[in-house]
Amino acid sequence: TALLFLGWAGLLLFSLGVARCAGLEGAPEWLQLLFGLGALLCGDLFRVHLNGLETSLVLAAIIWTVIGTTERWPAVPFGAFLGVLPFLRPELAVLGAMCFIVWAMGQRHWRVRLTGFAVGLIVFAALLSMQAVLSGGVLPRTGDAKTIFFDGAPGIITGLIPTIHQQTTWFFLVVAGVLSFAMIAPNYTRPASLVVTAFGLAVLPLLVVKYPSFMGQNHYRYLYILFPVALINAAVWCGSGPRARTIVVALLAASLVQSGWSLTRDWGERADEVADKRGTLAATAAWVDARMRPGETMLVHDIGYVSYALDRPLFDIVGLRSSRAIEVN
């Protein structure tokens, strides 16, 4: 229940943030609504955003980090926000560093810059210390564990081909339309466009090169960082003139039509899939609870629900819960 709430909360925050970005660029209310709906429907609702993953929170964090940079949030909340980013997903540390530089350049007094930096560093150090105590290591190695586990999985291109008919087709429309238009030609007069484009171009190739074997995991959720990159740039370009606005509106409208059609078509099937998985994992948890003896440890693949339902020593084979999975794999 908590993860489902976080999934919806992250998705709604992402949607509101995209609408806010459009508003900051002077978009009328109807266009802000269009952007917000585009963010709400992007990607796979059931199997990514509401699947107990951090994807929607990551997208929301990217959007609101850029908003905080653009609006020049006060030093204490902005620094604290940046300090949390790497613990949502490590690559967000790159975005945080970029946004801090842009934010600091817009501050007149060095004390404000120093305060923001100090608060961010304190929050980061506190969370890093907590992570070291709880996990036994300062830096997580789950990425390496997942690389070993998913070795031999379909490549990023061959794996994408069978998924074109799914709701994630929205991804292809964005890449072919808004993203190619916005990322290739960012608005160099707007800090939001520059920083988010630099982040996308710097981080995504590194992820694909370093972790090619699990880029397709959970329906390509690691590629979803392209959504805020594209939508922020599209919002910026909407404020640059009527011709650019017409192009972006047409692409967003086409994406909304496709996403809405896919979502309504697959709603029943996806809801049944979620209910079936919940029932299956509940039965699995009951089976484990009835058979595990004191002192035993069990290896589990889909550990999320079983770990939530039981107070038992479980070991995540994939490596999401323990980096010691590297030794097992």
Task: Give me some keywords for this one.
globular, about 325 residues
**Arithmetic mean pLDDT:** 77
Radius of gyration: 21 Å
Poorly predicted segments: 153-167
Span between N and C termini?
31 Å
Overall morphology: globular
Instruction: Count every helix, treating DSSP H or I runs of 4 or more residues as helices.
Output: 16
Helicity, in percent? over 70%
Beta-strand content estimate: under 5%
Strand order of the largest sheet: 1-2
What is the SS-derived class? mainly alpha
SSE run: HHHHHHHHHHHHHHEHEH
Number of strands: 2
| Biggest beta sheet attributes | 2 strands, parallel
Would you kindly provide a written description of the structure presented here, covering whatever features stand out?
This protein has 329 residues and is mainly α. It contains 16 helices and two strands. It has a two-stranded parallel ribbon. The radius of gyration is 21 Å and the shape is globular. The model is unreliable at 153-167 (pLDDT under 50).
